[in-house]
Amino acid sequence: AGALFVAGRQMFGARAALFAVAIFLVEPAVAERSGTPGSDFAVGLFGMLAFWTAWRWQSTGRGQWLLLSGALTGLGAGTKISGILMAAALGALIVFETLRQKRPWKWPASWCLLALLFSGPWLMRAAYHMGNPLWPHFAGIFDRSSRALWISERSLRSVEAGVGQGLKEFFLVPFNLILHPDSFGGVSWPLVVPFIVLGLACWRDIRKNPFALWLLAYAALFGILWFKVQQLWRYFIPLLPWAALLMAGWAEKLWSKGGVRRVVACVLGLSLLPVFSITANNEAFAVLGLRPSQGKLSPRDAYLSRRLNSYSAMAYVNESLPPNAKVLL
Predict the structure, then answer these.
(1) Mapped to the 3 state alphabet, what secondary structure does 102-147 carry?
(2) How far apart are CA 48 and CA 69, in angstroms?
(3) Is 190 helix (H, G, I), strand (E, B) or coil?
């Protein structure tokens, strides 16, 4: 959120940056995982800053920014599989920009080298312990043991559990994100609906904005890979800050033009509606030890009851067990 405010203030001003931070923090995928010890926010921070520093290279021509982007890209790729997808999307964009503007190749080559240097140790660690640097994916290539193939098959089924991988399903992803969010493991309409409406309303301005075009190209490249590898909405967390910033900037521009455009700008308010659904059953409340909404349950029990379907059954069994008995999970 802090990085988003700093970058957003430079691009669109302080007011749009504050709106973007608010939108990002109440987005359901962010709020839901804000109290979990997962890697989504780590890869999100690295991915966000990797794109920002690459954009600074594109806009200023200073290659030193690309060195920093390469290091951040490597950290993201070494954190989570989605970080590798972001590295591939950003790398393709950097190569395209180098060819288009006929820039020297030493900076993209350095970016690639640093990305490999910073991600390599973690990928080699996975290869050493699991026999597969990209575990649990691609088990048929790196490790053909029965256990690895079983886990890889489960991973593949989780992808197929989305909306399918055909061309028609790809183009219908925006509509399915709105109408069938369960297929992607999270509520996405508060961000997707205003993003589409405001983007269409500002399309002429977008065509004149290099940052917006660069970001949309990056999101499209990442989206293609995301669609083919893992259709989970939370994997878009690294892109949600930028989506929130574009929406805030578009809404501010529409508002400044007055008239009916101000009505369209108010669509931005939809992205703030999830604030009313953030209850004391959220993971962050359990971590902070705040009072839950389920009556007499402790924050710990409220959190576990919500996250584990079997927790209530285990609690019931424990109440009837003799003092020296234990249930192991």
Answers:
(1) CCCCHHHHHHHHHHHHHHHHHHHHHHHHHCCCCCCCCHHHHCCCHH
(2) 10
(3) helix
* Buried-exposed string 114-134: b where 16+ CB fall within 10 A, e elsewhere: bbbebbeebbeebeeebebbe
Q: Which of 87, 81, 80 is nearest to 116 (CA)?
A: 87
Mention every residue, 6+ apart, whose C-beta is less than 8 A from residue 20. 4, 5, 8, 12, 241, 244, 245, 247, 248, 249
What are the pLDDT digits (tens) for 91-129? Answer: 999 999 999 888 889 999 999 999 999 999 988 988 888
**Two tokens, residue 14:** 């302080």
Joined tokens for residue 96: 């395209």
Q: Nearest-CA neighbor of 270 among 178, 172, 176, 174?
A: 178
Q: Which structure tokens are listed for 130?
A: 């699991």
What's the Cα-to-Cα distance from 285 to each of 27, 39, 95, 213, 289, rounded to whole Å? 16, 19, 44, 38, 6
Closest CA to 25 of 327, 272, 323, 276: 272
Res. 69: pLDDT tops 90: yes
What's the sign of the alpha-carbon dihedral 302, 303, 304, 305? Answer: positive
Statement: the pTM of the whole predicted model exceeds 0.90:
no
Q: What is the Cα–Cα distance from 255 to 124, expressed in whole angstroms?
A: 51
Amino acid present at 47? G
CA distance 302 to 281: 6
Helices 81-101/210-229 angle, 10° precision: 140
